[in-house]
Batch of 3 targets.
Target 1
Amino acid sequence: MKPDTRAEALIRRLQVGKAPVDAWRLARQLGVRVERADLGEECSGVLVRKGGAAVIGVNYSHHPNRQRFTIAHELGHFLLHKGDKYVDKGTATVQFRNAESSTGTQSEEREANQFAAALLMPAEWVRREFARHPFDLGDDEAVNAMCRRFGVSSQALSFRLVNLGLLRESFA
């Protein structure tokens, strides 16, 4: 199943009804503990699995929107990548979210990013909101209003709008 399909199914299963999606609550509902941690400048988050337990560490120094995206990204790894491709650190399985993961160059990272975007900005909700208040990326006020509505950064929203075919890529 594709990452966005998995995210949409999770939203339906957990009966999430409005934006912004509470990634912290979703993690709890999935049995994944989330802890704020000092992960240094380069690392946004980490997923650690040991046995049947999982913990997401999220960088407490990052903006709350970035923390939410990181949690959603790590939930993507948790649900999509059952540990067979993670880096082993001792007896725990570890996957870091860092600068490389945000570029989306690795297949697993692209999938986790797609999952996070679909979880925090479900296609149907974004299309409905955009139809109500269409804009272009030069309209900072409208972009910021939609970012606040979904609790995401302007970069995340811009990529989502382009990927959904609502805007042309002119920001890259």
Target 2
Amino acid sequence: MKTETRSFYVRIVQGVVEHVARHLDEALALDALAERACLSPFHFHRVFRGMVGETALELARRLRMERAAWQLAHTPLSVTEIAFNAGFETHEAFTRAFRSCYGDPPSEFRRRGVRRVELAATCGVHFDERGIVPPFTPRDSGGRNMDVEIKQMPEQRVAAVRHRGPYNQIGEAFSRLGAIVGPAGLLAKPDAAMIALYHDDPESTPADQLRSDAGIAVSADADLPASLVEHHLPAGRYAKTVHVGGYEKLGDTWARFLGEWLPESGERLGSGPSYERYLNDPSRTPKEKLLTEIYVPIAD
């Protein structure tokens, strides 16, 4: 089961890597790539980043830049043409990005006859003018050995405030939530727990349109203020890990969890949302001691 499950995730991610590498002149339809991978956009982003070491968009940008370097070294195309081919709207923007990657501006790179075009990438996939896409090398940063518990969770009722905007600004919604649930007495309940739900893929959704919910777990019979949105997290099997430290590093833990631990675990993602559960108050807890539980639904 473990080998079969790992092969499943390797196969679907390899298919997306090949699609990206062979369609560098096309805009990436990331939701379509998620559908191709048989994953929700939210889970696709984290599985792909965790396994490949970069997002699908970052992969495409790097391969376009490598192609630009190859074209500078092997073709008479003008720098402006190459810049447009790489997806840049101006010569100046391309020059800045190219210098950042290769240390020289494009014209100097060409003049010096540089032939090295590969940029650092742990996955081992690089631009190939023949269209060859090798098997990618799955990233291994220790995620396979994460401390993960499989739990049978009951259905949970969550009362929430909707947040629209960058995920790293969801703290504003938690402040609004606190101002509502505190006077309502919900914070004093023994089963109260702060929970965040994320609904969109930050790769394919503009930052100002990302949807998330800052919520609190409540009992089935609790009376809710009318200004709160009610969610029900389905009962079922969940994989749980704990992130220790600042919230800005949560994305890395998600990537290791879904991109390294999951493919090696013998488990597959189930339907339903994943969520974060916060175990302490960031206003009273040193950042290095913050604890966040991450829950991912697992198929039966």
Target 3
Amino acid sequence: MNFHRSILTLAVGAALCGLGAFSASAQEADAPPKLSWSFHGPFGTYDPGQLQRGFKIYREVCSNCHSIKLLSFRNLAEPGGPGFTEAQARAIAATFQVTAGPNDEGQMFQRPGLIADRFPPPFPNDQAAAAALGGKAPPDMSTLAKARGYEAGFPYFITDAFTLYQEAGPDYIHALLNGYTDPPADFSLAPGRQYNKYFPGHTIAMPPPLSDGQVQYTDGTPMTVDQYGKDVAAFLMWAAEPNLDARHRLGFQVMIFLIVFSALLYLAKKKVWHDVHHDPELEGQRGSSV
């Protein structure tokens, strides 16, 4: 009895500690709101229109400072992505200048991008980026949506396992882009820094990159910071996991195979044991033994 009581005490204590940790985390930085994404869950897929809008935001705004080194121009035309044609992907590549070489004189040179090239970074190296942007190079965005997130704390890390929640990265990116506000009166903000309620510590060097109406959409989608944040977060999620649609499709096919295979095994087992139970020779042996 004392043993069970000790176990219960430990469990309650762990739960209270979890709640305390969550409260402390919430005071440090607000938890981003959980949004509804087309790619959520085992049957989720990317929305090509949203990915094209997100690419437009990256190209016109984010690419001025952030690289996306692991993404190639050909990825834009691959299945499960933004849905660009190969000709469109080639045209997009040609608008970028890519460092190539060396040439016959041993010199590196600039040329228009090819579809096989990766997206060129906005700066030649991290040191140049840091020197141009206040002393710190901005992060590469290739895997940003998978690498960045937030600690939800107890009990959310348990419930998320059942809801298959894996969108902490896109939720965080969207919240960060919409989280610029005036600091509280008692908050000390260093010169050149911005207050963001979703950024750890609330102090961020990056100025608000987006404003309403900044990027022009032609499909009637609202041109607001909220919508911009959703679109670019979805694009960065695709950039970090471009094969998500194929992975979901393969997983669904595997589950169907396992269900059919299990049914066949069950029917085979029933057939085998049915023949064993109704074998005349075995019936005679059982009768004689009785």
